[in-house]
Amino acid sequence: MIYFCQIALCLFFITTNSLFAVHQENKEIKYAILEKKKEARLEHKIKYLRKRLTHEYCNLDEEVTDEFLKNELEKVDFWYGRSFAHLATLIVMQERINTNETHLIITKKSIKNGINEYLSNEKMLKLNVKIETNEERQERHHKENMMANIIGHVLSAIINNL
After folding, report:
1. What is the DSSP string of 22-37?
2. Is residue 105 a contact partner of residue 61, using CB atoms and an 8 Å limit?
3. All residues at 6 or more sequence positions from 86 whose CB lies less than 8 Å from its CB, including other chains
4. 3-class DSSP state for residue 76?
5. Residue 79: what pLDDT?
6. Minimal CA–CA distance to 104: which of 63, 62, 60, 66?
7. What is the number of alpha carbons within 13 Å of residue 100 lying toward its C-beta?
């Protein structure tokens, strides 16, 4: 009986260790896949930003490389295409304010300043958001509905008296 328990215990340890090894291997594969996806998204962001910053009135400086853009865009966690459009507009507007030329050359400095300005604007917007509780939200909706009803009654009274 003791011999059987020892064998069962050994088989249990062998099974759990092999399952743990498979689990660790799957985790490493998963992290590698996630890292590849992150790199692909970053490459897409770089290509999209280059596209938004180069047109007939604006070009990027030769010093602005993909490596530089990659380092700058890694500061940002999560962006949509609309954010890139706003960022590109902000960079171009700042460069247009600083120079009087009709054809703009976007430099590293203007890209850094634009990203920092955009991040500070986003941070300020997030700080100004007031989080309301369910009770506050219900009270606000109640007041809005009461005002809408009062306005509706006043307008209907005015229309009826005409």
Report:
1. HHHHHHHHHHHHHHHH
2. yes
3. 118
4. coil
5. 67
6. 60
7. 0
| Residue that the structure tokens 């006043």 belong to | 154
Give pTM, 2 decimals: 0.57
Cα 65 to chain centroid, rounded: 22
Q: Of all helices (H) and strands (E), which one includes residue 49?
A: helix 2-53
Rounded mean pLDDT of 9-35?
60
Contact status, residue 63 vs residue 107, Cβ threshold 8 Å = yes
Neighbours of 40 (CB within 10 A): 10
Packed helices 2-53 and 66-73: angle between N→C axes, nearest 10 degrees:
120
Counting Cα atoms < 13 Å in the Cβ hemisphere of 85 gives 3
